[in-house]
Design brief:
The protein is α+β, with helices and mostly antiparallel strands and 313 residues long. The protein is 24% helix and 30% strand. The chain contains seven helices and 14 strands. The longest helix is centred in the last third of the chain and has 19 residues. The protein is elongated and about 80 Å long.
């Protein structure tokens, strides 16, 4: 089990805040730093950003213009694989990196979406972003999307956005792909602009909105990612498992047993989904034990084996 300590910072020019950013990097409390609005160009080398050479640096600088851009720094304690974005989507300001821990990995996106006054251009840019994320999120391992989306009109608590807007399009992508947004407080004045989205909410913890770094106008967002490294050796254990002999079941008796249950009363006294399911399973198990013969068999099972489901599920 490994813990990635991550921080998300909207810097509005890294170079103007290098001492503060490097102080955070070398504090020993940050494994991954995600910087949006990095404002970097070819004149700024990676050595200037990380003079102690402790981090792998993945950048997407804005081309032929000042401002924007994203920069991701991952501690060299972890193995990484950079996932190419700009080849297919050169206009986007996105980095994507797979962080490898043992036999496991997680995919981490860093995004800055430029706000545009031209509604048509803004809609096209959002479609490209959704297409990019939709393509790169089709993996078997967890995905985390962090960054400044400049989507203040999305209500993440109610999962609502103005109908027909680019915000609704992005929200539909989030919902249809099983992502959860974990930042619950405003990150710039009264607006929630900086987000942390994941399709595996249980691996992300300790999400907090902190005071801005230096003179930034966005708050700093901290969060932790827990990645479980599966065992390298397959250790089996023998268990006794109850096996029902359905070919010898008395289905008429089973039907009669279930018909005799006072279902309306059962529904009236169990009010939550969990209580209803538990009560239903209890009645069903009792009826099956009465009407279906069974035997115990010895089986070998691997502990800690995680069940795998298709990405769409």
């Amino acid at each position: 089990m490994s813990l990635l300590r991550c921080t998300l910072i909207n810097s509005r020019s890294v170079c103007n805040k290098l001492p503060d950013i490097q102080s955070i990097l070398y504090s020993g409390y940050v494994d991954v730093m995600l910087i949006t609005e990095s404002w970097l160009g070819v004149n700024v080398t990676n050595g200037l950003l990380d003079p102690e050479n402790c981090y792998n640096i993945i950048r997407c600088d804005r081309k032929n213009a000042v401002g924007g851009g994203v920069c991701t720094l991952v501690s060299k304690k972890f193995d990484i694989v950079e996932v190419s974005v700009t080849n297919d989507f050169p206009q986007l300001e996105v980095t994507c990196v797979d962080i490898l821990i043992g036999c496991s990995r997680c995919r981490l996106f860093n995004i800055y979406r430029k706000p545009m006054s031209d509604l048509s251009a803004s809609a096209i840019a959002m479609e490209q972003l959704i297409c990019c994320l939709g393509r790169l999120c089709q993996t078997k391992y967890p995905c985390i999307i962090a960054g400044d989306l400049n989507c203040p009109l999305i209500n993440w608590i109610d999962c609502s956005a103005p109908r027909g807007s680019i915000y609704e399009k992005f929200l539909n992508f989030v919902v249809s792909n099983g992502f959860t947004q974990l930042v619950s407080e405003p990150t710039r004045q009264h607006n929630l602009l900086d987000v942390v989205l994941t399709n595996e909410p249980l691996i992300v913890s300790d999400v907090s909105v902190e005071a801005p770094v230096s003179n930034c106008d966005h708050c700093q967002v901290n969060f932790c990612v827990t990645v479980e490294a599966p065992p390298r050796t397959h250790q089996y254990k023998t268990e006794k498992v109850k096996q029902y002999l359905w070919d010898k079941a008395d289905f008429e008796k089973l039907s009669a047993c279930l018909s005799a249950v006072d279902w309306p009363f059962l529904l009236s006294v169990n009010l939550t989904t969990e209580q209803l399911w538990s009560a239903f399973c209890q009645e069903l198990d009792v009826a099956i034990d009465q009407c279906v013969p069974s035997r115990y068999v010895h089986t070998q099972q691997r502990p800690c084996r995680k069940k795998s489901y298709p990405t769409k599920i």
